[in-house]
Design a protein that fits this description.
Elements: H1 2-12, H2 14-50, E1 56-60, H3 75-81, E2 86-100, E3 108-115, E4 127-128, E5 138-142, H4 143-149, E6 156-163, E7 166-178, E8 188-192, H5 193-199, E9 216-221, H6 227-237, E10 241-245, H7 246-251, H8 256-288, H9 290-298, H10 303-335, H11 346-363, H12 365-372, H13 376-379
Parallel strand pairs: 3-8, 5-7
Antiparallel strand pairs: 1-9, 1-10, 2-3, 2-6, 2-9, 4-7, 5-8, 6-7
Helix pairs in contact: 1-10, 2-8, 2-10, 2-11, 8-11, 8-12, 10-11, 10-12
């Protein structure tokens, strides 16, 4: 009976309910797009660190887990490796350069990352091969670069850097292509740590005997569950370092927390607006049909039937609106340019859709309570 009543009313006023479903679809679009933008921006900032085959990261002491500020003496790497519980460790260096291409493709600003071949931090290659030796003058590139510039394994690219006051170009062969590993909103290119030290931007090019100074050390533990205890252990035994897990490291990057907080606040206010809009619409609907509800109760319809009909009506209209908004969002996302950082993950999509489905009944609680309290004789003017 409740289902019949809800469907009958929706069908008789389908134009009105369709227009309201479009409002719910717009709310869904805004919430999903904000969630996708948050995931995309977070991924563009942390993708490389998140995919590291390591358990903890070693930074210079008192740098706030900042890869930009951290500078480590290369000798610290040997000190870290020698302790029990450390399965392996690799030094990593970061800098920013520009790629140019012989095929005339547009230049791309990238993160130049120096890694130790075969050690934590060195990415695998799904096409071609990974970096194998310290002196290999080859590069592994992010798949985004390969797609954008139409670069293949075996091609040569040119790395433009600043050495002192002069621009220098280094031609280097593409040995492999790895999956997406953005860092600081830029696609990444990987070279051996020694090659990175030779070609990275430098203010002083006169000091040729300057020691190799990586930014961080990625450490793989013998027991991945011992992150906290091993972090304290290494900090106690190696001077001048601080150690943390990977999640804490990328969440401590400049602007990450503020960025995610802003987007989550926007999403929260959108949910609140959704609750108020849905609640207002169904309350007006209920007030307009008070005589009909009174008639139903006068002929013996129970309160729970009236309440169930209202709940089913809210769920059906919300479900249609959410489905319409979800399909529109994904359709737009497919057509967006590659440079816009929107990313939809199964977890974020499921969480958002469930939350959107819940705001319908929550917003309609007032109208349900109002329908239950209708007195038959009063509603009929008697």
């Amino acid at each position: 009976m409740a289902f019949y009543l809800s469907i009958k009313e929706i069908w008789r006023a389908k134009g009105r309910f369709f227009l309201f479903s479009l409002v719910i679809a717009l709310i869904t679009f805004l919430v999903l797009f904000t969630a996708g933008l948050g995931e995309g921006l977070a991924s563009a900032n942390k993708e490389y660190l998140e995919k590291l085959d390591a358990d903890v990261l070693v930074f210079q002491e008192d740098t706030g887990y900042s890869t930009i500020e951290s500078r480590l003496d290369y000798r610290i790497l040997k000190n870290v490796r020698r302790w029990d519980g450390v399965a392996d460790a690799g030094a990593i260096g970061f800098s920013n350069v520009t790629l140019t291409f012989p095929n005339g493709a547009e230049a791309i600003d990238v993160s130049l990352i120096g890694v130790e071949p075969g050690k934590p931090g060195s990415p695998p290659a799904y096409l071609g091969e990974a970096i194998r030796t310290k002196q290999a003058k080859v590069v592994v590139i992010d798949e985004r670069i390969a797609e954008q510039a139409k670069v293949q394994v075996g091609d040569f690219i040119s790395i433009k850097t600043t050495q002192g006051a002069e621009e220098e170009y280094y031609d280097i062969k593409v040995a492999g292509i790895t999956d997406g590993r953005q860092y600081f909103f830029q696609p990444s290119v990987f070279v051996s740590l020694q090659i990175w030290d030779d070609i990275r931007p430098k203010a002083d090019v006169e000091n040729l005997n300057a020691p190799l100074i990586p930014n961080i050390i990625a450490v793989r533990l013998g027991d991945p569950a011992a992150v906290e205890s091993m972090s304290r252990f290494l900090e106690d035994r190696v001077d001048g370092i601080e150690v943390t897990d990977i999640k804490t490291a990328y969440e401590s990057s400049p602007g990450y927390a503020e960025q995610q907080s802003t987007l989550n606040t926007m999403k929260g206010f959108t949910f609140l607006i959704g609750v108020l809009v849905i609640g207002g619409f169904f309350q007006i609907q209920t007030l307009q049909k008070v005589p009909q509800i009174g008639m139903l109760k006068a002929i013996g319809t129970a309160n729970h039937v009236v309440a169930n009909a209202a709940v089913l009506q809210i769920i059906l209209v919300t479900l249609f609106g959410v489905a319409l908004g979800g399909l529109s969002t994904f359709g737009l996302a497919i057509g967006l340019p590659a440079g816009i950082p929107v990313l939809f993950t199964s977890t974020s999509i499921l969480t958002t859709l469930v939350a959107l489905m819940l705001i319908g009944p929550i917003g309609g609680m007032v109208s349900i309570r109002l329908a239950i309290k209708v007195e038959p004789l009063t509603a009929l003017g008697m």
